[in-house]
Write a structure and sequence with these properties.
- This protein has 219 residues and is mainly beta.
- It has a single domain (37-45, 71-218), classed as Sortase, Chain: A.
- 5% of the residues lie in helices and 34% in strands.
- It is built from 2 helices and 12 strands, in the order ββαββββββββαββ.
- It has helices spanning 37-43, 180-183, and strands at residues 8-9, 19-20, 74-79, 84-91, 109-112, 124-129, 132-133, 137-138, 152-157, 162-174, 191-202, 207-218.
- The strands form 3 sheets. The protein has an 8-stranded mixed barrel with strand order 3-4-5-6-11-12-10-9. Strands 1-2 form a two-stranded antiparallel sheet. The chain has a two-stranded antiparallel ribbon with strand order 7-8.
- A hairpin with a 4-residue loop joins strand 11 (191-202) and strand 12.
- It comes from Micromonospora cremea.
- GO terms for molecular function: hydrolase activity.
- Pfam families: Sortase.
- InterPro entries: Sortase, Sortase_dom-sf, Sortase_F.
């Protein structure tokens, strides 16, 4: 799944300074109207992120994880309402293409390893995955657009602990307009951010126009 996005992510971890996010995953069907947008926005820090460096034209999110924060990667995601049970792999950004490097198998999903882990006391834990593939069919996030406020999901960490979450928002953005600094932030209240693609499919470009973003908070 490749989702092209002009946005860039800054990762101040493991010596990585700034990463450009590109493609994510996709689903052709239109979701219902956005829900919970105000609540999702309120979870982010009230302090605006630093402006992007002069050499970039994309938002940059700066910030270090707390020194005492154990980074616990998610390894499994279960969303009963849309029949998802998926393996989560730690991923970054493809240095050659500047794409968010989602696992090639559409039944698996990727956790942005330069962001917070499940034990972080602040910030957005980002998981993205394919919706579908011409070769492999429906992906793990094929029905992500169906989630609504109040739906529940469980993220299990590498420590074996299952952590419940509750959906508070579902939003759709044209990919060039998605506020990446909000969804990849390391500040604000702890939350889980699920991203895939949606909207109309551009057959010539072979990609979907939009991104669908689901925000969930610890239950």
């Amino acid at each position: 799944m490749t989702v092209r996005n002009r946005g860039a992510l800054a990762a101040m971890a493991a010596g990585v300074a700034a990463l450009t996010v590109a493609a994510l995953v996709a689903c052709g069907s239109q979701p219902a109207d956005d829900v919970g947008a105000e609540e999702a926005s309120a979870l982010a820090s009230a302090t605006p992120n630093p402006p992007a460096a002069a050499t970039t034209s994309v938002p940059v999110t700066a910030g270090e994880l707390p020194a005492d924060a154990a980074i616990v990667p998610p390894v499994r995601l279960v969303i009963p309402d849309i029949d998802v049970t998926a393996t989560v792999n730690a991923v970054g950004v493809n240095q050659r293409t500047n794409d968010f490097e989602v696992p090639p198998s559409v039944d698996q999903i990727g956790w942005y390893r330069y962001g917070p882990g499940l034990e972080a006391g602040a910030g957005s834990v980002v998981i993205a995955g394919h919706v579908d593939s011409a070769e492999q069919g429906a992906g793990a996030f094929f029905r992500l657009r169906e989630l609504d406020r109040g739906d529940t999901l469980t993220a299990t960490g590498s420590d074996g602990k299952a952590r419940p979450y509750r959906v508070v928002a579902r939003e759709e953005y044209v990919k060039t307009r998605i506020p990446l600094d909000r969804y990849f932030a390391r500040d604000g209240k702890p939350r889980l951010t699920l991203i895939t693609c949606g909207g109309p499919f551009d057959a010539k470009a072979r990609r979907y126009r939009d991104n669908i973003v689901v925000t969930a908070v610890p239950a």
